[in-house]
Amino acid sequence: MEQQTAGVPAFSELDGWGLARRRVVRALALVPTAVGGSFALGACSAHDAPGPDGRPLLALSAAQARTLEAVAEAVAPTAGGFPSAREAEVMRRFDEELSFVSPSIRDDLKAALGVLEYLPPLYGHFGRFSHLDRSARQALLQQMCSSRVELLRAIGGNVKILVQFFYFAHPKTWAATGYDGPFGRLPERMDDQRRWYAEHTGASA
Amino acid sequence: MSAPTPGRIYQWTDLTQMQTIRAEVCVIGSGCGGATLARQLAMAGHDVVVLERGGYYPESTFDQSELGMNAKLSADRSMRASADGGTLLLSGNNVGGASVHYWADSYRTPDDRLQLWADRYGVTGHDAAALAPAWDEITATLNVHPATEEYHNRMNQLLRAGAEQLGWEGHPVPQARKGCVKSGHCMQGCMYRAKQSQLVTHIPQAVAHGARVYADVEARELVWEGGKVKALHARVVHRPSNRVSDIALTIEAKAFVLAAGGYYSAPFLMRQDGLQSQLPMLGKQFGMNPTAMVHGLYDEDIVLWRNIPAAFGVEHFRLAKFDEAGAYVEGGYLLMANQIQPGLLGSMMPVMGDELGQWMSQLPRIGGTIAWIDDPADELGELRLAKDGTPKVHYPYGPLTQAILRDTIKKQAQLQFAVGARKLMVAGADALQLNSPADIDKIDQLEIRAGGLFMAAPHPAGGCVMGRSAKDSVTDSSHRVHGFDNLFVADSSVFPTPVSVDPSFTIMAFSYVAAEHVRQHLG
Ligand SMILES: Cc1cc2nc3c(=O)[nH]c(=O)nc-3n(C[C@H](O)[C@H](O)[C@H](O)COP(=O)(O)OP(=O)(O)OC[C@H]3O[C@@H](n4cnc5c(N)ncnc54)[C@H](O)[C@@H]3O)c2cc1C
């Protein structure tokens, strides 16, 4: 059950699912391959199942979280002592950030993940994005980023940019980059929203 | 004269009950526009309340964490993009607004821009002579001074050397700082109170003179009759969830000033019943100084993330140049050293996997430049409303805009190769890499389109532009919304075009003028 704070509307009341659906339908017009009923992004509850890391999700559905993690695994370097996308908590941070932005941004990005997941057949791949091997995922992302179709560029570009933002901002990546950390190496001071997210996803704050 | 009774800053934890707040002036937004105006009016003895949708984050809550501070200070955590998905829209959402994460470059508005606004758009009372006293005072209040040598990090030294070599005019950039420790965390909020943001200057000064600041309060609905706004309905934001609660506040005042920032002021008015048809220019003539970036790999350590961001600025190309036949030649942007922490830098790298790892494993040796373009006046965009009432930016990236972007990428490449870059990466989806100056011509083939270049837009302007009548503008030159007696706008949304330099100093000086008009209204 979604938790509700006194005086504060629940997530479900605030999410503009109608908007997300319309955008996905529009995007679907670009995906002529039969994806049928399984492409019912709007029908997923954002809270139906835990994320790939086993913890509850607040903004993403479990399916969207899997797609996002598949992007992050494709984008993150594997050599040179870099941590994995899971170690750098990219999917988790994405869910957290999305939990606090305006509904229109949240919906667009969730819809983007839905399109991404079911797009591969358009580019000649069999199977959904999260089922492709890493190099096929990389190739598809690159094709999307330089696509002639504005919507596909926007989807590929924005998801990739955010994934890389959350990955390289994570302290576990710093040793491999030579970044010496925030000035004075101060510890993080969690704000109300980080604590709130941690409480609602069962993590220790 | 007795000392004024100080006001205070209220937050969501103080605002647990529905209530009516009375004041002489109600200001919506606490950034450079709102805080400056509130300070002016409070110091003149007026009873002022300021509403701020974002939280109050004093320095004790800062930690210099890139993501953590982005969450505290940036509107929608810097995740809002233009309608075409191609440009990230950056602004503030906290007491002090965007000034808390800005770079502190403090340029006076160039005379040519003030003249353009007067001649083409009919703006009066905002010429250099009218604004100079405000700038003189703000220069003192914010300790504005050109960046001295010790504040030029390696990238700024290279930028200056390159500009000298190429014969491009540039200067140390005027900075609003006092006792800077060179942490390099301007964009994470300065925990040393060195950067002279509104949070440490005009806000505390306004509060010391009695202003009451309400953080975590979203202004929603104006109530007006016959051109006179009587009240404003607002809601308290539950900060932990960032959701608007059902705790309602009503503010009754003699004057209302909208200073919600370039991305939010026009949408706020558009959401008011019937105003869009009364003010057809609402949301129009919108610019945002899109930025283009080029990263470079050097043989020496650059360390982009320390010291101040823009110590030196190349102003040579500020205005676009045209030939006698009117064809574009070059220019139309300010060129600076870039400063970004690893998350943002990594996000702007258009490669992935191990190629991304190879670039990022050399992070200390990555340098970079950035340019914000002066949006051409005839190719401006428009603000509309998204379904949830938040701003949606439609920006055309017209032919001249594209030419300017291409030119600045070429000039950035030219400069970086001149000062020793081994190879360059244009921050854009096409992942264009240049290995020598001979490759610069490849930029001619680069398609400039939405989502092609990775761009951010930190300087919104317009949407409530100032002008002669409701046919060509939203406010008159007294900052009053056409058709209203006591509703004013005081932020970058009144600029008829972008400023052609960083806008904060223009915003603040305009707020001095706006404050004077509000004072006259109060009598
Ligand atoms: C990364 C970055 C670096 C920059 N560097 C520079 C620089 O070096 N020099 C320079 O001159 N400029 C710089 N700028 C731009 C500059 O910071 C802004 O133009 C300026 O601070 C804007 O001031 P403002 O008052 O117009 O708006 P804002 O600072 O955006 O303030 C508006 C405030 O209104 C609040 N608000 C919005 N809607 C509501 C509502 N409905 N109810 C209540 N409150 C509301 C917002 O939360 C916000 O805090 C930079 C910007 C960015 C993003």
Strand content of chain A: under 5%
Shape descriptor of chain B: globular
CATH topology of the largest domain in chain B: Glucose Oxidase, domain 3
Summed up, the domain count of chain A is 1
Identify low-pLDDT runs of chain A. Answer: 1-46
Query: N- to C-terminal separation of chain B?
Result: 21 Å
Which radius of gyration of chain A do the C-alpha atoms yield?
A: 17 Å
Bound compounds, please?
flavin-adenine dinucleotide
Q: For the record, what CATH class of the largest domain in chain B applies? A: Alpha Beta
Mean of residue pLDDT values of chain A: 81
Output the radius of gyration of chain B.
Answer: 22 Å
Helix percent of chain A reads 40-55%
Strand content of chain B: 15-25%
Helix content range of the residues of chain B, please? 10-25%
Form type of chain A: globular
General description of the model:
The complex is a heterodimer of chains A (205) and B (523). Chain A has one domain. The model of chain A is unreliable at 1-46 (pLDDT under 50). Chain A has helices at 11-14, 17-28, 62-75, 90-98, 103-118, 134-145, 150-168, 174-177, 192-200. In chain A, helix 3 (62-75) packs across helix 7 (150-168) and helix 6 (134-145) packs across helix 7. Chain A has 205 residues and is mostly helical. Chain B has 2 domains: 8-56 and 94-102 and 107-141 and 197-273 and 499-522, 3-Layer(bba) Sandwich (FAD/NAD(P)-binding domain), CATH 3.50.50.60; 146-186 and 289-457, Glucose Oxidase, domain 3. Helices cover 24% and strands 21% of the residues of chain B. Chain B is built from 12 helices and 25 strands. In chain B, strands 7-15-18-19-14-22-23 form a 7-stranded antiparallel β-sheet, covered by helices on one side. In chain B, helix 1 links the parallel strand 3 and strand 4 (48-51). The radius of gyration of chain B is 22 Å and the shape is globular. The mean pLDDT of chain B is 97. Bound molecules: flavin-adenine dinucleotide.
